[in-house]
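Most newcomers find our protein records easier to grasp once they have seen one. Each record describes a single protein and holds just a pair of labelled lines. A learned vocabulary of local backbone shapes supplies the integers on the structure line. Nothing more is needed to start thinking about how sequence determines fold. The record below serves as our worked example for the rest of this section.
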Amino acid sequence: MTGTGEHVDTVVIGGSQSGLAVGYHLAQRGRRFVILDADDRVGDAWRRRWDSLRLFTTARYDNLPGMAFPAPHHVYPTKDAVADYLEAYAERFQLPVETGVRVDRLSRRSETFEVSAGDRTYTATNVVVATGTYHTPRVPDFADRLDAGIVQLHSSAYRNPSQLADGDVLVVGAGNSGAEIALEVSAHHETWLSGRDPGQEPTRAGSLPDRLLMPLMWFVASQVLTTTWPIGRKVLDHLIDPPRGIPRGRVRRKDIMAAGIRWVPRTAGVHDGHPTLDDGTTLDVANIIWCTGFVPDLSWIDLPVIGDHGLPLQERGIVPSQPGLYVIGLPFVRALSSVLLGGVGRDAAHIAEHIATRATDLTAVPA
């Protein structure tokens, strides 16, 4: 176990898919590193998601470098299958993951980074931040003014309909998460779905047309919608300013209508303890599920690297202003696919190669 002041060449913060992919490529290059993860078990970030969640990409596109996802190519893996895959991946490649270690500060002293985690301190020449973007649930300020008797859950805390009280349900947010959860709870409750329609993919996930088009869609997500192409930068701006959901992949608008779900305008405030909509309607519901996304929380990074949208200023995972600092697992580190399970490998390889090259430069003896 490290963390008592011993120097490590590279500290990777975050032990989910991005951190593990970086670890794989560092190991392939013979680098000395440690992966720190706040959870007690590799894959727990996935195990905490709602029970019925499945990926929106098939197993064919869910591979980390060096190990195929253990499922038929056309299957959409469950969240527990993903968690088990990550755990097996770390074990297979004997990656040095230290679990139960929550980093609370990253700072710099001269040419060395200091990583603080409670009473433990790590020093490193390089640090890779692989914590992703799912940090703090985004819930509107007016949620605190709702009647205390209304059950409120963010999608990150929702598991299944057994958590809900008797009565109607308002699901706020009509993206992938909101639509899937609304469809699930509508089997047991009168359900309202609130929010802007982000649209839907041209084919339904799992359909024959989808199987035929998926290779093209993956090519576009990984090779066309990149930061090096104007169309990629335009899509990035569309997604983050203001934050927007991507088109729904599995639930179609006709599915929502067929389930009897009432699609209503944006939830805008509170009247007499009840949620009100943009059109002035007040809803008398017993439950609210906030499918409103997350706010990045990288306040523990005590370095001047955070941009306007709460994310580090980076170029293909490299933070130019802080030599030796890297980020991965964010949308558009290089491409739209950078945030997907099967898309992190390429970014991880680029970062690991940069670390190895940097190590050579640092140890080079001047002529």
Remarks:
- The longest strand covers residues 4-13.
